[in-house]
Design a protein that fits this description.
Length: 336
């Protein structure tokens, strides 16, 4: 079964063709990062306009790369939640037109479910049930993946996501946007004990997280140093900050494994590319004899291949949409 998949939830316009949920025949991504970098973050209106400009081209390129014709498509899958509402609407409306024109079913896909499914592409042996740590610019959550389409959030951030925290701190340190990769690279040469940052605890829920205090602590440190004319060791600060984020994510992931009894942990989302978090998870899982599934860096960020993969399993579960399908800025993964 060949699925044409579309993704436009943030600043990447992506199209892919995926066969039987696991084989990626093509994956094309057009990014508007350069346009947003000028403003230090994603500007929703610019993102939406760039999606409109790019979506036809990336779709045509996906067909060319796959060596398929439109007649070879059996269904269209599209991200319909969550994301920047204007951006998501571009993909949804294009997908509706494509499904209608091709006379094939339309399958709506939750964006975070798509990130989880990226692991199915990278790891053909991975099957539910398992625990997934989802860490991205918009989401930080521990998800009980009971089946390909039955999922439950066990714990989540109460405020900022880990990805948002990385971007804000990188901007304060003058590393530009997007800040995750340059901050990660800088941290690798720093001392992770040079600065002391908080590790927040949510007392009424051991699996929930909070990053707003950590973000504020870094920002205040940087601003106070600037006002006093004091120099900060940026590499040490980046390393200490990265350690604080990892120290929030890894222990809770282990606690969630204990609660579920699973021996498999997957990681999904853009922050899954962070080297400190990956290394700490590898050590923790090895100590517990837990199988760890990390997506390759190319599948950590937003892409349409992951949407095509999850779309296949949603299709098998009977999920369909008609021409009234709408886009949603927020949606619980259990409803996806």
């Amino acid at each position: 079964m060949n699925i044409l998949a579309l993704e436009s939830s943030c600043d990447e316009t992506a199209a892919a063709i995926v066969r039987d949920g696991r084989t990626v025949l093509s994956s094309v991504i057009a990014t508007s990062v350069a346009e947003h970098a000028v403003y230090g973050g994603v500007v929703p209106e610019i993102a939406s306009r760039k999606h409109v400009e790019s979506i036809v081209q990336v779709t045509e390129q996906a067909f060319r790369d796959a060596g398929l014709s439109r007649a070879d498509v059996d269904a269209v899958a599209v991200t319909y939640a969550p994301g920047l509402i204007g951006a998501v609407l571009v993909g949804v409306n294009f997908a509706k037109s494509a499904a209608y024109g091709l006379g094939v079913p339309l399958v709506p896909v939750h964006h975070v479910r798509g990130h989880i499914a990226a692991n199915y592409i990278a790891h053909p042996d991975l099957e539910p049930p398992f625990l997934c740590l989802c860490v991205s610019g918009g989401t930080t959550a521990l998800v009980d993946v009971k089946s390909y389409t039955d999922m439950e959030i066990l714990g989540a951030t109460r405020d900022d996501s880990a990805g948002e925290c990385f971007d804000k701190v990188a901007r304060v340190l003058g590393l530009g946007y997007p800040g995750g990769a340059p901050l990660d690279k800088l941290s690798q040469s720093g001392n992770d004990t040079a600065y002391t940052f908080p590790r927040a605890q949510v007392h009424d829920s051991e699996l929930d997280l909070s990053f707003s205090g950590l973000k504020t602590a870094v920002i205040n440190l940087a601003h106070n140093a600037q006002q006093k004319g004091e120099a900060l060791n940026i590499a040490d600060l980046a390393a200490s900050f990265s350690a604080a984020v990892s120290d929030s994510l890894v222990p809770r992931s282990m606690a969630a494994l204990d609660r579920t009894g699973y021996r498999k942990l997957a990681v999904a989302g853009g922050v899954a590319a962070n080297s400190r978090i990956r290394a700490d998870l590898e050590r923790a899982c090895a100590a517990r004899d837990v199988a760890l599934y990390l997506p390759p860096l190319a599948l950590c960020g937003d892409n349409a291949a992951m949407i095509g993969c999850q779309g296949y399993y949603e299709y098998l579960a009977g999920k369909r949409a008609d021409m009234s399908l709408n886009a949603y800025a927020t949606m619980d993964i259990s409803r996806g």
